[in-house]
Protein: Substrate-binding domain-containing protein
Organism: Microbacterium invictum
Amino acid sequence: MRTLARGRGRFVIAGTAILASIGLLAGCTGTGAEEEDVVDQGTSVEENAESGDTVVIGFSGPAADHGWLGAINSGAQAAAESFDDVELRVAEGTNDANAQIAAVETFINDGVDAIVLLPTDGAALTEVAIEAMQAGIPVINVDREFSSPFAARTTILGDNYGMGVSAGTYICEQVGDNPDAVVAEIAGIDSLPLTQDRSQGFEDALSDCGLEVSARVAADFTVAGGEAAASQLLAANPQIDAIWNHDDDQGIGVLAAIESSGRDEFIMMGGAGSRNAMEAIQADDSVLKATVIYPSTQAADGIALARLIAQQKTVGDLVTPSVPNRVVLDAPVVTKDNVEEFIDLSFES
């Protein structure tokens, strides 16, 4: 069985880790006739693990100007290397939608067997993804959704709303017994739907324990932006009980601002799951006590599912003989108590 390094198999689908087999019920006649399957279970875990016809997969993502995106790219390549029947063609990462469209058009012209695409802009890449689908090339959409259901065979997403729920639930557990607790939020880029989803989930979870966001600032997923936003937040709020920072990369700047301020009366929670955040949680020597995972394994999952689709195989642990059209990964909370389970899945900021 081929797998990437993972923590107790929570959400990595790379290699054949997703393909744990389930036995299916079999029926027989009352006269002792030979047993026969009730349903066609598709391909088994053993069949999926076997080498098949070589499939050529095109992969395109944004520029790796962020630790999480770097991990997305390296994860896709590691997943492809774990199979001896996958040839991966990687387009140069770009934040220019037109350049990414051109890369996908090249994949189409080359007649690849499947495309795994994390679009720099889902709406802008929708038309070319539809073009690929119409050419008979299955598209696996990662992280940022297209604006049409016809643009992808399968979509793999992290759970942004779930991140907010997980963060809010953790903070409720820590300070919820204080109805006057001051809860602060350092968001990412406010114009992005993912930021809006995270904030909504956070607000909804806090409301369940009678808390609300008392102070909120937005950053830009960068170290400098995180430091500036945190400095603003701390200056405006002399007392804080808990902070949720949406992104561990910008969290480096957030922690720098906190250290400069000399403040430590609050707990802080991060987001995404970087290695430096997990190491700080492990050391337990700062205000950072937890983070919530936003899987950087999504493109690796995409490679594994693209291989199954291109080889006309199915997910071996589903009764329905298919590959799902939509996969939403979970958003677990990492604390000092369970960090060992997740640290191998962390990414470098």
